[in-house]
Structure formats: structure tokens, C-alpha cells
Design goal:
This is RING-type domain-containing protein. The chain has 161 residues and is mainly α. Helix content is 55%, strand content 6%. The protein contains 5 helices and 3 strands; from the N terminus they run ααβββααα. It starts with a helix and ends in a 9-residue tail after the last helix. The structure holds zinc ion (2 copies).
Length: 161
């Protein structure tokens, strides 16, 4: 009877491992499908590409006081624009320090800090932030490995879902 029991428990272990591997395979497959699907539909853009797009739409220049009587304040850092500083003027005619504005535009929505008019098309901003979210919260294969080790060591794998 002991040998029958051993045989059954062996079978049970083999079956558990088999189904775990099967489950993992399907998870990996589904992941790769969803990844490639979202990738082709909406390719994420890097910070460098994003800043390049801002530069294309609103080229930076040097601030010249010229004959202007009025002083202009950068609404991001709240200091005056000084002669020769690198600035960026938006389509809405609002002017900021180039570095201040570029940092601001990377934060949330790419809108003018003063009048909230769009600086870049919404799709581009969405693509950029999707990439950032992917980096921050994207599941890595590490969690799969962790799941595998938990499953093989007999803990309840359902708790992972
Ligand atoms: Zn500034
Ligand atoms: Zn504006």
C-alpha cells in the first residue's frame, strides 16, 4: 500500500508541476500578445523624443530685452527673464525659461503653465506618459519567477492573482 501511495503522490506532484508550467506559459503568451498589440497601436516615446517635439513646435531662443519696457516673469520659477537667458515662447505668446518649461511639460499634461493651452497634441503626451507608467508600474518577468517558485513550493498560487 505504501508504494501505491508514493506512486500517487508522485503523480500528484508531476501533475501540479505540469499544470503550473502550462499556466505560466499561457500567462507569458497573453502578456506578449497584449504587449505587441499595444506597442504597434501606440508606440511609447522617450523623454528625448518628447523634448525634441517640444523644441520643434516651440523653438528655444535667447531672451532680448530690446526696447521692451515691461519686464517678463517666468511663471514656473517666478523670477524675471534676464537678457541672454535661454527661453521658450509658446504659441499662446507666453514666455518661460527653456529649462523651467521643459521640466513643467514633463510633469503632467503638456499645457502652458499660465493659460493651459495645449503645447503638444494630446496623443503624444499620452504616449509619453504611458511609457513612464510602463517603467514605473510595468510588471517584469521577476514576478513570474516569483510566482513560479511559490507555486512549485506548494503555497497557494491563487493568492498571487
Ligand atoms: Zn524660470
Ligand atoms: Zn499660455
Amino acid at each position: 500500500m505504501a508504494s501505491l501511495y508514493e506512486c500517487l503522490s508522485h503523480l500528484y506532484t508531476i501533475a501540479t508541476v505540469f499544470f503550473t508550467v502550462l499556466l505560466l506559459e499561457s500567462v507569458i503568451l497573453i502578456r506578449s500578445i497584449t504587449k505587441s498589440f499595444s506597442g504597434s497601436a501606440n508606440r511609447p516615446i522617450t523623454t528625448t523624443q518628447y523634448l525634441k517635439l517640444i523644441e520643434e513646435k516651440n523653438p528655444a531662443s535667447r531672451f532680448k530685452t530690446g526696447l521692451r519696457v515691461q519686464t517678463i516673469e517666468c511663471a514656473v520659477c517666478l523670477s524675471m527673464l534676464e537678457e541672454g537667458e535661454e527661453i521658450r515662447k509658446l504659441k499662446c505668446k507666453h514666455t518661460f525659461h527653456k529649462d523651467c518649461l521643459d521640466q513643467w511639460l514633463q510633469l503632467d499634461k503638456a499645457t502652458c503653465p499660465l493659460c493651459r493651452s495645449n503645447v503638444l497634441p494630446e496623443e503624444i503626451v499620452a504616449q509619453y506618459h504611458r511609457r513612464r507608467n510602463d517603467q514605473e508600474y510595468g510588471g517584469s518577468d521577476e514576478e513570474l519567477v516569483f510566482f513560479l517558485s511559490v507555486a512549485l513550493h506548494g503555497s497557494n498560487p491563487r493568492r498571487q492573482w
